[in-house]
Write a structure and sequence with these properties.
Number of strands: 4
Radius of gyration: 18 Å
Strand order of the largest sheet: 1-2
Distance between the termini: 28 Å
Helix content: 55-70%
Strand content: 5-15%
Shape: globular
């Protein structure tokens, strides 16, 4: 597989910083001005001047707390901003943030701690609680989107529903939602959704999709390339791919997957 040449897109000049209008994370859009958030995978188009999430400034502040490692305060602020919301865009963004907080909490386990390692236990329970909150947000967003799109189909909302199902691990529902999207197959959003579904479903077309998305200045394609390589038992190649990506892009899922691969490689070496 000769895909290393595609890594150069990470160093390509002309990438412009942006703020995701759903989760508040910062990302790099290529020269096309269109792409996908590295944090929540929402479709981002620079031509849209208004953020889809009405509380985006608060979400951006929560993202800063995450970067600072202040996870408990980030959760507290996120709980407050989501408490009464029925906005599917906000709930989708919140689901992704809760999911990342869960991964960070679970990753903060140190078996060299003294005593009964109460902090490890607390982090595990906190991670489980955050996973539950994440699922709650995604399912609520899906339900609201379903109600709204019954009479007025909207591919942007259906795409959010699709990604939510992917994050929930419900591939059959994701496939059903993908088939209901009316966007032409040549659209970037449709191509991305097809890539995600093929890789997550271990379909052979997934590899070609990742390369196609990478040529369109989409770093997330590199993440899905790593997932494809992992499915092919190419652990070292997947590790290198994720290391290159994580050095340039803030993508928590890439970091979590890299940690998983490191654990697998350690087990193999034993």
């Amino acid at each position: 597989m000769d895909y290393s040449k595609y890594f150069s897109l990470l160093d390509r000049p002309g990438a412009s910083p942006a703020i995701c209008g759903y989760c508040g994370s910062y990302l790099n859009l290529g020269t096309l001005g269109e792409g996908f958030c590295h944090f929540c995978e929402a479709h981002i188009n620079r031509r849209e001047e208004k953020a889809k999430n009405p509380e985006i400034e608060k979400f951006s502040a929560i993202q800063l707390l995450i970067d600072e490692g202040n996870l408990d305060y980030a959760k507290k602020n996120l709980d407050a901003v989501t408490a009464e919301s029925n906005n599917p865009n906000l709930l989708f963004g919140a689901g992704s943030v809760y999911k990342t907080l869960s991964g960070l909490k679970y990753g903060d386990l140190d078996y060299n701690r003294k005593g009964f390692m109460e902090e490890n236990s607390a982090n595990i329970y906190s991670s489980l609680d955050l996973t539950s909150k994440s699922k709650e947000m995604f399912y609520k967003a899906i339900r609201l989107i379903s109600d709204q799109t019954k009479t007025s189909p909207d591919d942007d909302l259906l795409y959010l529903s699709f990604i939510s199902y992917i994050k929930l691990g419900r591939l059959l529902d994701a496939e059903r939602t993908l088939s209901s999207m009316k966007t032409q197959k040549t659209s970037l959003m449709s191509e991305y959704a097809n890539m995600v579904f093929c890789v997550e479903s271990n379909k052979k077309e997934g590899y070609a999709y990742t390369l196609e998305l990478m040529t369109k200045e989409n770093p997330n394609g590199i993440y899905y390339l790593a997932k494809y390589l992992l499915s092919q038992k190419k652990l070292s190649e997947a590790k290198l791919t994720l290391e290159r990506l994580s050095a340039k892009v803030r993508m928590p899922d890439a970091v979590f997957l890299l940690h998983k691969i490191d654990r697998l490689l350690d087990e193999i070496s034993l």
